[in-house]
């Protein structure tokens, strides 16, 4: 009996895309450019890795005879993408490798020994966090824009820590902090971890719509994230994440209330005068007025005023324009708030208890 399986082209296309999006190919090591396929019991398991992260998805298929092999991830993805719409793809093992067909199209795929493919060993990691997929996606989206530079490797990830009634996810680059609390069932012995930024951003895309629930477990070195048919095993960021929750400055002064879309539009107009040497924006704050000014040698200068709700004292501030835009863009709804703390940092958040919070350090302008 021929070792083969038949699968819907759309399912294979989305499956290959999901595992490849998380794991970047390692051109110097040929086997890591391949996907491992295990076909058995009416399912095909696709596995990709770069030896720092493993990405796996299981798809329904009509399996004729069980087998395992590895084929080029790029080639298999292209075949699935170019197969006739609504068609089925049959992949079989031949004496010289593998073969695929869809409709009248035929392909021959070179293979590499499956024994050389690094296995996905989860080391018995058990789920310690259970949460809704929608809450997980919300938390990732709230903090994924913050990424530390290479000089701060211990901050190059998303912190996940246990809090009352759930978890808090956070990202900090030394100059700005974003954090978001979401409900979850968390094991009492769950210790906080930091998942690499690039991995978590790609996992967000890969698991969207995969299932209703996500689980997270770890052993201190590796984290296992599972969502329906998808599983991801990734090395954790080493080093201690800055414990921001132990030293958060007290908020002082009057709040600045504003409409996020109006503020984003004004920032976009002021940004027209920005160049690579002028990244900061000056803010003149007075009763019900929020005036932004930016000047550069190559692009001139720009000023715009937003009408806000503010009744405090007049003051002049300076912040990174990009940091401000990123924070305001993450504020859902029609009303947001900016507060200053005792150290002069700005805190920006939508006016709802569950809204993510964003803090940024001041800068001289």
Report what the structure shows:
The chain has 365 residues and is of the alpha+beta class. It has three domains: 4-116, DNA Polymerase III, Chain A, domain 2 (Roll); 129-245, Roll (DNA Polymerase III, Chain A, domain 2); 249-360, DNA Polymerase III, Chain A, domain 2, CATH 3.10.150.10. The chain is built from six helices and 27 strands. It has helices at residues 9-22, 73-82, 133-143, 197-207, 260-270, 321-329, and strands at 4-8, 34-40, 43-49, 53-60, 62-63, 67-72, 88-94, 97-102, 105-109, 111-112, 129-132, 157-163, 166-172, 176-183, 185-186, 193-196, 213-218, 222-227, 230-235, 251-258, 280-286, 289-296, 300-307, 315-320, 336-341, 346-350, 357-360. It has a ten-stranded antiparallel beta sheet. The chain is elongated and about 80 Å long. The termini are far apart. The mean pLDDT is 93.
What key phrases describe this protein's structure?
365 residues; alpha+beta; DNA Polymerase III, Chain A, domain 2; 3 domains; 10-stranded antiparallel β-sheet; 8-stranded antiparallel β-sheet
Number of DSSP strands?
27
Sheet with the most strands, sense and barrel status: 10 strands, antiparallel
Task: Round the mean pLDDT to the nearest integer and report it.
Answer: 93
> So, CATH architecture of the largest domain?
Roll
The end-to-end distance, rounded to whole angstroms, is 74 Å
Radius of gyration: 25 Å
CATH class of the largest domain: Alpha Beta
Question: Could you write a compact summary of the structure shown?
Answer:
The chain has 365 residues and is of the alpha+beta class. It has helices at 9-22, 73-82, 133-143, 197-207, 260-270, 321-329; strands spanning 4-8, 34-40, 43-49, 53-60, 62-63, 67-72, 88-94, 97-102, 105-109, 111-112, 129-132, 157-163, 166-172, 176-183, 185-186, 193-196, 213-218, 222-227, 230-235, 251-258, 280-286, 289-296, 300-307, 315-320, 336-341, 346-350, 357-360.
């Amino acid at each position: 009996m021929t070792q083969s399986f038949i699968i819907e082209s759309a399912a294979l296309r989305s499956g290959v895309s999901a595992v490849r999006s998380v794991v970047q190919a390692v051109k110097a090591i040929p086997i890591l450019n391949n996907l491992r396929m295990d076909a058995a019991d009416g399912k095909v398991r696709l596995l990709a890795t770069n030896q720092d992260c493993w990405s796996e998805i299981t798809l329904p298929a009509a399996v004729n005879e069980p087998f395992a092999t590895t084929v080029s991830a790029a080639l298999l993805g292209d075949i699935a993408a170019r197969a006739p719409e609504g068609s089925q793809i049959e992949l079989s093992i031949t004496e010289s490798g593998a073969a695929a067909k869809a409709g009248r199209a035929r392909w021959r795929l070179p293979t590499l020994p499956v024994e050389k493919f690094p296995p996905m060993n989860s080391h018995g990691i058990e789920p310690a966090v259970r949460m809704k997929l929608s809450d997980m996606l919300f938390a990732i989206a709230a903090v994924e824009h913050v990424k530390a530079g290479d000089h701060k490797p211990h901050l190059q990830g998303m912190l996940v820590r246990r809090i009352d009634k759930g978890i808090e996810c956070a990202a900090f680059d030394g100059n700005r902090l974003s954090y978001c609390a979401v409900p979850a069932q968390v094991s009492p012995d769950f210790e906080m971890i930091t998942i690499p930024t690039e991995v978590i951003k790609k996992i967000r895309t890969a698991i969207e719509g995969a299932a209703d629930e996500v689980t997270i477990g770890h052993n201190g070195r590796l984290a296992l994230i599972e969502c329906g048919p998808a599983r991801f095993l990734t090395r954790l960021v080493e080093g201690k994440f800055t414990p921001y929750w132990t030293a958060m400055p007290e908020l002082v002064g009057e709040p600045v209330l504003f409409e996020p879309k109006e503020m984003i539009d004004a920032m976009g107009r002021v940004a027209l005068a920005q160049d690579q040497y002028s990244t900061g924006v000056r803010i003149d704050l007075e009763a019900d007025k929020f005036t932004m000014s930016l000047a550069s040698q190559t692009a001139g200068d720009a000023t715009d005023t937003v009408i806000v709700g503010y009744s405090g004292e007049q003051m002049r501030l300076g912040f990174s324009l990009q940091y401000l835009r990123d924070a305001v863009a993450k504020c859902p709804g029609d009303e947001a708030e900016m507060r200053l703390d005792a150290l002069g940092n700005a805190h920006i958040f939508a006016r709802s208890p569950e809204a993510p919070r964003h803090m940024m350090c001041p800068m001289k302008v």
